[in-house]
């Protein structure tokens, strides 16, 4: 991937003059400094998401009611994910209409990060399940507002020929965030209060480089249509009959993310109760580290590779099948070496998937004027699995035969995601 470090021309190109810089199809490659800001925002958001999901909420659940820890974890994470289903597309849609002189996306990145950080601090003092759920919902509200804005910034500013590479680096940022959350979980030695504070601080610091170098043109009020509530709400429905590629892309991302979430949602409990790891939090860190290394390698290789060959679907199909294979390994080898192998295979598949599928998604967006809203609708395919997966996981573990059923279910659902990618016709 080529990133330009040269200063941008003093005036916009002709393509941007005709429609306005905020809405034009991008033609100039983004700078390394801008991409670094994008990557760091992804690091902070994912540390704020996955530090609690993978470690701190589980530890807090044990401190409140150890026999009901699975049910508490499922309830809290499902409530937060339900909020994200609304927060992500709604924030994206409002950012589309933002006419601040600081740009359309940057104000939402800042406000979302501040809200999520404050809620993480409040969550650290929660001694009841209801308060845990309430503050986790606020974390999801803020973090999803920031995430909707930063993902919309990619089709706003990155040309198609660079999106695979940028998508790979964004995936690397997501993975570093997940790894950062696991590191926090390991170093605080069960002190989830400190863990929540670390996640909050990481989130706030992560957004600063992007905000100072945002390359986020302001939307002139003359380009903004009058607000009509009915049309605004109607815009969230994107017909699968009129835009079938968008619909199939959404469905495949949803299925792959369900499979991935099923594999990781009870990882702390799997290490504790099945493998009997002597330090489950440290075990999560080891597995996350292996997963992270594999994700970063395959993401930064597969993304630019797909840019060079001009094809996306073969990469998405192969990576989805690899993700499914990780679930099968965890199902049939429920021992520590099996967990290590499963983490590596999951990282190999998910790294390539995150990079290339993100680029594919940006190529099936219906309208330039609503990139934030449309990416928010796509991001529901990331959030909805957080609602679905905890319930499926609880059913599989408590009533369906245990962790083998859980991981096999993850494998089957991931394979379905690979199959349906072939339905996308407008992208090779």
TrEMBL record:
Residue ranges constituting the Major facilitator superfamily (MFS) profile domain according to the UniProt record: 223-428
Coiled-coil segments on the chain, per record: none
Region (Disordered): 1-22
Keyword hit for Transmembrane: yes
Cellular component terms per the entry's GO annotation: plasma membrane
Superkingdom of this protein's organism: Bacteria
Cell location: Cell membrane
Database matches in InterPro entries: MFS, MFS_dom, MFS_trans_sf, Sugar_transporter_CS
Transmembrane segments: 38-59, 71-94, 106-125, 131-154, 166-188, 194-212, 246-269, 281-303, 315-333, 339-365, 377-399, 405-422
Topology term for the membrane: Multi-pass membrane protein
Keywords: Membrane, Transmembrane, Transmembrane helix
Major location category of this protein: membrane
A molecular function GO annotation: transmembrane transporter activity
Official protein name in the record: MFS family permease
Taxon lineage: Bacteria, Bacillati, Actinomycetota, Actinomycetes, Micrococcales
């Amino acid at each position: 991937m080529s990133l330009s470090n040269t200063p941008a021309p003093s005036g916009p190109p002709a393509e941007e003059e005709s429609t306005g810089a905020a809405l034009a199809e991008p033609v100039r490659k983004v700078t390394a400094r801008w991409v670094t800001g994008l990557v760091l925002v992804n690091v902070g958001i994912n540390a704020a998401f996955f530090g609690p999901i993978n470690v701190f909420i589980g530890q807090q659940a044990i401190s409140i009611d150890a026999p009901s820890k699975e049910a508490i974890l499922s309830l809290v994470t499902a409530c937060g994910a339900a909020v994200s289903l609304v927060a992500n597309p709604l924030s994206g849609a409002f950012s589309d209409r933002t006419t601040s002189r600081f740009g359309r996306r940057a104000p939402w990145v800042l406000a979302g990060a501040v809200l999520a950080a404050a809620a993480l601090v409040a969550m650290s003092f929660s001694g009841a399940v209801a308060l845990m759920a309430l503050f986790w919902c606020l974390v999801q509200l803020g973090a999803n507002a920031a995430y909707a804005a930063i993902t919309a910034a990619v089709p706003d500013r990155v040309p198609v020929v660079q999106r695979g590479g940028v998508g790979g680096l964004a995936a690397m940022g997501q993975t570093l965030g997940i790894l950062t959350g696991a590191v926090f979980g390991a170093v605080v030695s069960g002190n989830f209060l400190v863990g929540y504070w670390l996640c909050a601080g990481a989130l706030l610091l992560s957004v600063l480089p992007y905000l100072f170098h945002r390359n986020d043109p302001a939307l002139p009020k003359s380009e903004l249509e009058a607000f009509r509530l009915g049309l605004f709400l109607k815009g969230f429905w994107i017909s699968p009959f009129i835009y079938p590629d968008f619909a199939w892309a959404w469905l495949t991302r949803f299925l792959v993310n369900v499979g991935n979430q099923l594999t990781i949602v009870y990882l702390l409990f799997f290490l504790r109760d099945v493998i009997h790891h002597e330090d489950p939090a440290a075990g999560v860190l080891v597995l996350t580290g292996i997963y992270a290394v594999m994700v970063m390698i395959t993401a930064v290789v597969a993304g630019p590779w797909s840019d060079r060959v001009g094809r996306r679907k073969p990469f998405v199909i192969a990576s989805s099948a690899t993700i499914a294979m990780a679930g099968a390994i965890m199902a049939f080898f429920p021992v520590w070496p099996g967990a290590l192998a499963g983490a590596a295979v999951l990282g190999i598949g998910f790294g390539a998937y995150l990079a290339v599928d993100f680029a594919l998604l940006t190529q099936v967006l219906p309208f330039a004027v609503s990139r934030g809203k449309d990416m928010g609708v796509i991001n529901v395919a990331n959030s909805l699995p957080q609602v679905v997966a905890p319930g499926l996981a609880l059913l599989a573990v408590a009533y369906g035969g245990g962790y083998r059923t859980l991981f096999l279910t993850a494998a089957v659902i991931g394979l379905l995601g690979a199959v349906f990618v072939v339905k996308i016709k407008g992208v090779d």
